[in-house]
Write a structure and sequence with these properties.
kynureninase activity (chains A, B), 36% helix, PyrdxlP-dep_Trfase_small (chains A, B), alpha/beta, homodimer, seven-stranded mixed beta sheet, four-stranded antiparallel beta sheet, 2 domains, pyridoxal phosphate (chains A, B), Aspartate Aminotransferase, domain 2, Aspartate Aminotransferase, domain 1, globular
């Protein structure tokens, strides 16, 4: 993978910035930040510095109004009539079209439905059926585990299918691709280290072996420009509750390239994917297009939260988001270097997502000590301390202050306090 | 089916009531209604009489406060910390335990997750795996179509499986059960006609043939006492947005009898069903118990709506609900008889759910003419006019008034007005 990932540069990558070296410089960067006004779009609690937007995005101020309108007006007053009158029925598509520009998808290829896990299932089964003479699904050991679990579920279900994993000390991608490879499922950004795959190069490599490319965009959608169409991607899935700020467990999105849609045959044949759901016919006829990935009735309260959150992105330039994300990360990395922290995230900007991760044997306690001061990052087993950078609301000054706090915690070893011990774990 | 359905009586069935014969009698029944105070728990728009709670339940007044608390406090202020601090993680279980008493389930057998369609998929695959020497799934032609579509999706996926349908002019249940039957999936209440199956008798019959019984409770949960444990049911699924009033597309519930849980092997192996999801292990180990049916991250905005809606049921006696439901239906049926309407719903109380359906060749236009007057029932192809009766907020007086309006519409043939024509249909 390393060879592939570094073999080309994505168009949006900027040169490595020089990180600010004082709080005053940080304040100057904040004052000049073209995205600074977006911070007011979010509720950010007093006394909290939030570096976990890569796990759960902060609450947009407009969410409450959008959800209230849906509940009080559309449901409360409109009742059943709102399925037509408030355009609830087409919402998996209409909201999908609001996600589409964020992932480089032309119209008609993106829907909102189910969870990432369920969508991966639908896409993997479809991929195996589209490559009936090939039985191997390739993924990576360090992908978010639900992707592996779902792949395992598919493998047990489809005779003669198998799973091969790349990464860590295992083989690289090129060495496992072959005439039996049906599809490759990779995470655009690694949930632990923040490593970014080169979408264009990897997709191209997979296609050269006749396989389908499926991207998991959970940790990149909303944090950088993504070009699914331009890269020729076959399928993609992603969540909306990280950098898209749609709320805990908000519905997922699913992208299917137009060229594949009419050959898609996924087994969750729910009525929402039927060509004429209100004909109530006993036989299933899939609707033409990406809608055939829909299954059950869409959850409107959660959809209302998603719709409001996407309004925040309406005039946002994702290239500006990416540039700020990389600059914020440079600051975290530079100060981490000063502290002698073990950086798990690639140093090259073009190989990074929007979070920075350090490894530390006492990472769990250090993260707890930071949280006690209102500085919220998170810990991922076995020893990863993650700091998510959300350019829509993260400032350079607060990164500076957080790294000051980190320096203090490390210098005084205050993380050794017993209240930061992991429950049930002897450290 | 007819033989089975009429062969026994469910314990909660009351004798046929005598329907009121005047509006004054209706007002007296309303005044004596032990459930009358519950009407104030709901937002019911001015000028609307709502008979579609069997499709989308009305908005509970407490929903907005519950959702607001979740969004502003738990998400907005608590941010990522609320997965633990506000007990989001266990919510599929904790809310499941609030549904459990409504369906006659002891603790530890009910979870909230996904949609009905996705849950049927999980249960059907599990059932086939639990009966590896049997390949036939039995359902009924008149079940809500998503059940058939999902069964078809499963059939295509599992080699040597097949689907057999009972009902209408087809065979009855007993004649299709045999040594190859793996499972039977039936709807407790028929979504069009309101016909109620005898859960105890049907489950017993299915078990005598060695097959598993799966009930779809979409059209009965919240409208009557249900006794899953007492009837020895194996699995059940149901939605929460009809008689449970949790909001459009709210998450579904899934019941798995305790005796089966550890042999369940369903293929949607999402991380929420893992024994230790935060260990982030590459291999899947299912959590013990019903939790192994969970897949993706639960949608908390929709969960908040469900939680608030279930609070309404806390002190509700479902036997009282059932008694009022049957009495309301007697009134609809009696007045329909006077109008010469063609009743599609069984006349015997013990064979009815909580909606009453008439067939009429101009049913679509008649329903539209009623809706124009604020009387909201619905139409289901080809010719079914449905009137859902929700004892928590439906009064005898409004049923009386609605049937007056129906009489007027039929007498004057006002439904012939061109604005009630179905778009694109010549009538």
């Amino acid at each position: 993978m390393q060879d592939v990932a570094t073999s080309s540069r994505t168009a949006e990558t900027t040169a490595t910035a020089t990180a600010p070296t004082s709080r005053a410089e940080c304040a100057a960067l904040d004052a000049a930040d073209p995205l600074a006004a977006l911070r007011d779009e979010f509720v950010l609690p007093e006394g909290v510095v939030y570096f976990d937007g890569n796990s759960l995005g902060a609450l947009p101020r407009r969410t409450m109004a959008g959800v209230t309108r849906m509940i009080e007006q559309e449901w409360g007053q409109g009742l059943i009539r709102s399925w037509n009158g408030a355009d609830w029925y087409p919402m998996p598509h209409t909201i999908g079209e609001r996600v589409a520009p964020l992932i480089g998808a032309a119209a008609g290829q993106t829907v909102i439905c189910d969870s990432v896990s369920v969508n991966i299932f639908k896409v993997l089964i479809s991929a195996l059926r589209m490559r009936p003479t090939r039985g191997t699904l390739v993924s990576e050991l360090d992908i978010f585990p639900t992707d592996l679990y779902i792949t395992e579920g598919v493998r047990r279900l489809v005779p003669d299918s198998q799973m091969r994993l790349i990464g860590r000390d295992g083989p690289d991608l090129e060495s496992v691709l072959g005439p039996d490879t049906a599809a490759v499922l990779l995470s655009h950004v690694d949930y632990r280290t923040g490593r970014l795959h080169d979408m264009a190069a990897v997709t191209d490599l997979v296609h050269r072996h006749g396989a389908l490319m499926i991207w998991d965009l959970c940790h990149s959608a909303g944090a950088m420009p993504i070009e699914l169409d331009a890269c020729g991607v076959d399928f993609a899935v992603g969540c909306t509750y990280k950098y898209l700020n749609a709320g805990p467990g908000a519905p997922a999105f699913l992208y299917a390239a137009e060229r594949h849609q009419d050959s898609v045959d996924q087994p969750l044949l729910g009525w929402s994917g039927h060509a004429d759901p209100f004909a109530f016919e006993p036989g299933y006829t899939p609707v033409p297009g990406v809608g055939r990935f829909l299954a059950g009735t869409p959850p409107m309260l959660s959809f209302a939260g998603l719709l409001a959150a996407l309004e925040v992105f309406e005039d946002v330039d994702l290239h500006q988001v990416r540039a700020k994300s990389l600059a914020l990360a440079e600051l975290v990395i530079a100060r981490g270097d000063e502290l002698g922290l073990d950086l798990a995230t690639p140093r090259e900007p073009e190989r990074r997502g929007s979070h920075v991760t350090f490894r530390h044997e006492h990472g769990y306690q250090i993260v707890q000590a930071l949280i006690e001061q209102g500085i919220i990052g998170d810990f991922r087993a076995p020893d990863h301390m993650r700091f998510g950078l959300t350019p829509l609301y993260t400032s350079f000054s607060e990164v500076w202050d957080a790294m000051d706090a980190m320096a203090e915690i490390l210098a005084t070893k205050s993380w050794q306090d017993e209240r930061f011990l992991r429950q049930g774990t002897v450290t």
